[in-house]
Each structure stands twice: as structure tokens, then as C-alpha cells.
Amino acid sequence: MTTRDAHGTSDARGSRGTRVTPRWKETRRRRLTAVAFLLPSLVLLGALVVHPIGYSLYRSFFDRSGDTFVGAGNYREILRDDTIRTALGNTAIWVVVAPVTATVLGLLFAVLTERVRWGTAFKLIVFMPMAISMLAAGIIFRLVYDADPDRGVANAVWVGVHDTFAESSAFPKARPGRDSPLVPAAGGAYLTRDPVRAGVPALLPLVGIAPEDLPGGTGTAKPAAAEPGRVTGTAWQDFTRGGGGVTNAVDPTESALAGLRIEAVKDGRVVDSATARADGTFSLSAKADGALLRLPASNFREAYGGVEWLGPTLVTPAVIGAYVWMWAGFSMVLIGAGLAAVPRELLEAARVDGATEWQVLRRITVPLLAPVLAVVMVTLVINVMKVFDLVFVIAPGAVQDDANVLALQLYRTSFGADADPGLGSAIAVLLLVLVVPVMAYNIRRMRREARR
């Protein structure tokens, strides 16, 4: 209805007598516009987030079939099941190790590349893994961690470093043949049956070595010549291709065992030693007269195969390493953006006052970057709580229980061969409960930053 004041000015009122002013109309129009824009998002949020959370909570109180109410039975099962407890423990390891490692590496990369000419190129290379999906990264690192050093990069590097300091043997599968003058000794070595004599060539035949595995430079074996006052002999592969040949005798086409180490032992003490030449012959001094010849176990040590990265012990750290490789670039970019806003005069003043670079980093840079570091840490913590595809792809089936995390256990329980949607829903609710405190902290931090 319309009313008039003492001056005759009309004024519109609502159906309940509320005074309608142009300002009120503008406010209502803005609210309706905001609702119109927010409604699609609210509908999607309700359909994709609120409803699944509510249904998961409801379903967690029912059994596998969904017909019988079991109360907190599924939650009690979480505490009793060894596989789920392992997943909980591994998730805790992920939450502690992965975000901290990725954040520290991102901080170091951001600080160290700030003052070098090629810093931008380095940052690009470090950030590139973010463009790769978790599935693709998992396939890459499954190959990187392959146990075969000829295929797996990690073991190829590890074996190369190991062999630099402890060279592997060239004859890991060599052994004496039938009726050989050599017999097994303690520790994997071989000894001659009888003492050797000066001037009488000794024979050291071995079998079990593939021709392609013989060391480079190996030639055809030759019988050793007798030398007065010295012990000589031949070490060779007692095998003739195509058959034939005489056992325990150096035949014309048989290969030498170049590089084989021979020791002369008397009373348990090594009195002399030698290494077989390219033709398999060797020569010892008169000290070896009457001694037993020993082929040390180091000649037959199995080649070092590297580390079992995807075994039960190291599978979780190995998968975390793949995650850090992907997300260190994310940390570096965010921290680098925060570092660009740090007042340079503070850093320079500290250096002028005699502070070392480590002191500048620890006492000035890190405190000033604390809000950015908190953002990175919280983001990564939330991210690692739902990590699934990396563990699923990298960890072999035999050790997947050892690398298990809550998100993967949720999938295996809900959709595996023996699916239990009730227990899976309980795990989902547990995962939500674990994430909520981190989210609450993040929201409080953002509000506190907004008030500054």
C-alpha cells in the first residue's frame, strides 16, 4: 500500500507494512543475484560432497549386505584388522615424512636457485613432474625401482657405486667338476686335494661358467711350463664346446680363467699368492712348495644385485620418494613466490652484520616465510592422506599390504574381490575425521591472515 507524509510525499510499504526503500530494493536484488550464481555450486556441492559424506556415515553402521544394523561394529573391526592397522601406521609415516621432505627440498631449491643464472631453467625442470599424472609417475618409478640393474635406474646407480669400492667376481657360479683335484673348503673357497710341488705344474679346472660371462681379454688356456724352484699351474674352464676333450686336462680349445686369484696356504696361513694370466697360467715362489692351493671365496662371490627397493622393508620409503619427486616442484614454486616478497634490505643488513648464509636462512628467511611454509605443509598433508594411485601402481601385489595406506585400503575394502561396503564406509569416515582437523586449522589460519 501507499501512504503520504505531512508534505504529501508517497511511500511504498510491503504487504506486512515493511517500508520499501530504493536501498532495500538494491540489497534484495544483490542477494538474489548472489543466490542465482551460488545455486549451481551449492547443488553440485550437495550432490558430490554432502550427500556422499552423509550416505557413507549412514552406510558405515550396516553390515556387508546393508540390511543389518551393526552399530559401531565396523569401527571396531578397523581396530582389530591387522591390514587396516598397517594402513594407519603407513599413513602416519606419510603425513610426517612426505610433506616435511617436500617442503624442505622446495625451500632449499627456492633459496639456492634465487642467485644463480640458470635458476629459472632448474625450477622448470623440478616443476615438470607436476605435469605428469600420478598413474604415469607410478609406472615410471615402477621401472626405476626394478630389481634388475640392467632395467632399474636406482639399482644400476647403486650397483655401480658398490662395484667401485667392492668389485664383483667374474666367476660367481664356477665350481669343480667330476673327479677334480679341487675340493670345497670353508666359506665357499676351494682347496687342492694334495699339496703342490715346485717344478710340477698344478691343474685347477673349474666348470659352470658361461662363455659369454668370462672376463674380457680371456684367451685359450695353455698348459703351464715347469719352472725349477717355482710352483706353476693353469686355471681354466674344463669344458669343450661341442663335447669331447679330456677331463682335468687342458684341451686346445678350452678357455682360461684370467684374473682368478690363487693362494698358497701352509698351516692355515697364506704364504704366497698370484693371479691367473690371460692364458690361465700362474706362477708362485718357492714358498708355495708343499702348500695347498686355495681359490678364495672372493673369486666366486655372487654379483651384487643391488637393493630390493620394492621389498617389504623399503617399499614405503620408495613410494614416498616418488611422491616427493612430483611435489617438490610445487613446494618450490610457492615458496619461491613468498621469497620474492621478502624485503631484501633485511637479508643484506644481516649479511653486513656478519651473519652466515645458514644464519640468514634460519633466523630471517624461514620466519618471514612461515605463512607460506604453513600453506605448503597443510596442502601436502591433506594431499598425502588421500594418496592412492602411487601406492597402487608402484607396490607389487606381494608387498602391497606392507605399503598399504588408508585411501588404498578404502578402495580394496569397498571394491575388491571380497567387497564390504559397510567396512569401506567406516574407513572413509575415519579418513574424513583425520582430515577435518587439518582443514579446520587451515581455515583458521586463512581467517587470521585475512584480518591482518
Mean pLDDT across all residues, rounded? 87
Helix content: 40-55%
Second rung of CATH, namely the architecture of the largest domain: Orthogonal Bundle
Question: Going across the major beta sheet, what is the strand order?
Answer: 3-4-10-7-8
What structural class should be given to the helix and strand makeup? alpha+beta
The number of helical segments is 13
Q: Characterize the main sheet.
A: 5 strands, antiparallel
Total number of domains? 3
Q: Kindly report how far apart the N and C termini lie.
A: 48 Å
Instruction: Give the overall shape, derived from the CA principal axes.
Output: elongated
Describe this structure in words.
The protein has helices spanning 22-59, 73-80, 82-112, 119-127, 134-144, 153-165, 315-340, 344-352, 357-368, 370-385, 389-394, 406-415, 421-451, and strands at 2-4, 10-12, 182-184, 190-192, 202-206, 231-237, 261-266, 269-275, 281-284, 292-295. Residues 5-11 have low confidence and may be disordered. It is of the alpha+beta class and 452 residues long. The protein folds into 3 domains: 2-59, no CATH class; 73-157 and 309-451, MetI-like fold, CATH 1.10.3720; 182-299, no CATH class. A 5-stranded antiparallel sheet has the order 3-4-10-7-8, with no helix packed on it. A 3-stranded mixed sheet has the order 5-6-9, with no helix packed on it. Helices cover 49% and strands 10% of the residues.
